[in-house]
Amino acid sequence: MAVEGRACMLTEPGAPAVVEDVTVGSPGPGEVMVRLAASGVCHTDLTVKVLNGNGMKFPIVLGHEGAGYIEEVGEGVTHLQKGDPVVIAYRAPCDQCPACRRGDPRHCYMALRPQPRITRKSTGETCSQVLRCGTFATHTVVHSKAAIKMPKEMPLDKACLIACGVVTGVGATMNTVKVWPGASVAVVGCGGVGLSVIQGARIAHAKQIIAVDVNPVKLEWARKYGATDVVDARNGDPVDAVRNLVKDPWPGYEGGVDFAFEATGRMQCIEQCVRMVNYNGTAVTIGFPASTDEVTLNVGNIDTGVYWNKVNLAVSHCGDALPSHDFPLLAQLYLQGRLDLDGMVTRTIGLDDVEAAFHEMETGNVIRSVITF
Length: 373
Ligand SMILES: [Zn+2]
Ligand SMILES: [Zn+2]
Known about the structure:
Order of helices and strands: EEEHEEEHEEEEHHEHEHEHEHEEHEHE
Distance between the termini: 20 Å
Bound molecules: zinc ion
Number of helices: 10
């Protein structure tokens, strides 16, 4: 049954996000309606606004880091029922592409999408939903395979963080590469994703985790989440600093880390990560680039060049997550006290405060603002 609700949306390019009355239609076959309990405000929502929709059709309901309760299930949905607590994944593997067919759903080429079900009450226009989610809304409709059931004891205002920032960071250390016990790790950029990389490396029993940022507050956070060393990148070349911090048992051998993660979206940081790793080490790039972004990599330097240092470069697409497996695992790690989500919610806000949260994201020290409904 269709429900009346409210949603925070972009109505036209350049306009601020506004909350409007909406009608959310019944879920179709294979879809579910979710009544939102909480939604994290992710940098990607701000990016959609700044890039004037980033190719999506207006009006656009924002939000893709949501958790809530199943309100209604569509035809053919048997694995969920009304009242189930779920986290919404922005990507559910399709079962049909070449990667899925060969049993590698983490590298699915596409994602299952619902029909657009949210309409603007004032004009009747159908809304786009950011990343097939649209979680800055009292209700949304998503593909049933994108609604991942949570344990009953999992608080949803923390669970929502799993959907994007946390799975991206932790997943980079578990799925994109596999950080081994005793590994040395550098993390460049200590926002929500970088802090999650640090937590992933800590959970994997890395022996040394070196956090790099230009903001001393974020470096303090990094220590709290498991960094063993911190480097303030404002004070000289962070590559030298990281290499000097790595304790290496081989006399005369230039130190470096086994894994260096870039969590900034800045090209300079990818170059730094490539130069930070040791022989056969892996640099992992996570942040979204702009379409014109390029990097310059030295190949021939005897210590840090891509050839002589045998550098691997891995790309992490949002932690290469398989939500049906990874979301319950991360919830379990939280419930066991091994993954800290409580501290990552720096502010709880209402649906009407999204613009203020965007502003704070650009100017303040915020890990995550979470909207609660
Ligand atoms: Zn697929
Ligand atoms: Zn996100």
